Amino acid sequence: MKATVLIAEDEALLAADLLAQLTGLWPDLHCIASVADGKAAVEQALALQPDILFLDIRMPGMTGLEVAQALAEDWPDRAAPFPLLVFVTAYDQYALHAFEHAAVDYVLKPVRPDRLEKTCARLQTALRQRQLSQAAEPSLDAAIHTLRELLHANADAASPQGKPAPASPLRLIQASAGNTITMVPIADVLYFEAADKYVRVVTAEREHLIRISLRELQLQLDADTFWQIHRSTLVRCDAIVSALRDDSGKLTLTLRGHPDKLSVSRLYADRFKGL
Length: 275
Fold this sequence. Notes:
Blueprint: E1 3-8, H1 12-25, E2 29-35, H2 38-48, E3 52-56, H3 64-74, E4 84-89, H4 93-102, E5 105-108, H5 113-133, H6 137-157, E6 172-177, E7 180-185, E8 189-195, E9 198-203, E10 207-210, H7 214-218, E11 226-230, E12 233-236, E13 240-245, E14 251-255, E15 258-264
Parallel strand pairs: 1-2, 1-3, 3-4, 4-5
Antiparallel strand pairs: 6-7, 8-9, 8-12, 9-10, 11-12, 13-14, 14-15
Helix pairs in contact: 2-3, 3-6, 4-6
């Protein structure tokens, strides 16, 4: 069976070994790119649209899970079917719990030929089923459902670094600008948005920048108060006035006391269902 694969692995020797094993097990599998970081994985996957993605769970910049999330959010509606995902990881009880819960395939480092052979067989079966269906959109819907399960399982187990969530949520943010430190009550925050190495803290009156990753910040917040609506956005749920769905199904949020409109990604659109 002919198919294309993109490998995202930051250790060059491991990437080469994985490719060599795949070539031996599946001669008709063509590697269209091998990249060493998460950002390149997203860019190349969107550009080349491979049939299969092997994603190292720990890469510079973005984890393999964050790459999958970014692709699910940005994958074009009428593109080729969403890639089949295989995560490559060192033994990590939190990651393995999440993968098994969401029924996502994974291989452990160092990659064993017998285990990889089983993965190849599963991938070939999935590709045959996909060819019979001849439909790209259902594959994206299925991928989004699987990734939702994976994200929930991963959040329930622990953070990607294996750190448990704190016992009590954050109540105050100390935002520094020059020589001034501004105390920002969490109750005043409308939403948080990732911006390069910073996070924008947006209130009704103004915004601040704090140097922390959105993921680290999220672990310190009350999940029932701040909802993730995009990989780069957390919004305070009681600041939402309305959710408007356009003809293509995309959701946009209007906030109370602020002109900004926030987009909801496919992965989190299931939060908004009328009663």
